[in-house]
Amino acid sequence: MEIQRIDQTLFDRVAAEARSLPRLRRNHNLHAEADPVQRFLNVMQPGTYVRPHRHQRERAGAGFECFVVLQGAIGLLLLDQQGELQGQERLEARGPLRGIQLPEGIIHTLVALEPDSVLLEIKEGPYRPAADKDFLPSFPAEGSAAAAELESRWRALFSGGKP
Questions:
Q1: Domain with 100 in it: what CATH number?
Q2: How do strand 73-79 and strand 85-92 relate by DSSP bridges?
Q3: Is residue 1 part of a domain?
Q4: Rounded to whole angstroms, how far apart are CA atoms 1 and 156?
């Protein structure tokens, strides 16, 4: 195992990659695929759409997710089963709230409020793509015009807009 530096050089490199991708975000894993704890940077640009989802695991309570903003600002939206907004939190690297841990089963989405925003995410592994997220089916898929419009409305909530 080698030492992994989490520094501005890494942030800048992954942010440049995120800007060049259609999704406008890029993960940089700090963990190996089979590790029991997933640790990764999620670098997000304004305009990226994260389809509302929740995490559930076979072992009760193991579907938690922890977010800490290392650079920039992220909006966290909490939704109910019907997709109605239940709450929102602004997480900022230089703000009063820098991170949050969600318990298992909480439906949520994220929006990037500043360019090159960097989140450290921690959740139980190992990563299994088919079972990692339980998406709310009433929301549009990534890449659609409806998804882009919805992301824009969600981001506006953090600057005084209405949903």
A1: 2.60.120.10
A2: antiparallel
A3: no
A4: 43
15 part of a folded domain = yes
In a domain, 3, yes or no: no
pLDDT at 144 over 90: yes
User: For residue 143, is pLDDT > 90?
Assistant: yes
For residues 128 and 96, which has the higher predicted lDDT (pLDDT)?
Answer: 96
Domain region containing 50? 8-159
Domain count, the chain: 1
- How far apart CA 72 and CA 41 sit, in angstroms, is 13
Q: Which residues contact 55 (CB under 8 A, 6 or more apart)?
A: 63, 64, 65, 104, 105, 123, 132, 133, 134
The conformation of residue 94, written as its DSSP 8-state character, comes to T
Count other Cβ atoms within 10 Å, centred on residue 70.
16
Residue 129: what pLDDT?
65
Q: Which residue in 132, 119, 124, 100 sits closest to 41, CA to CA?
A: 119
User: Chain-wide mean pLDDT for the chain?
Assistant: 92
Q: Is the pLDDT of residue 60 over 90?
A: no
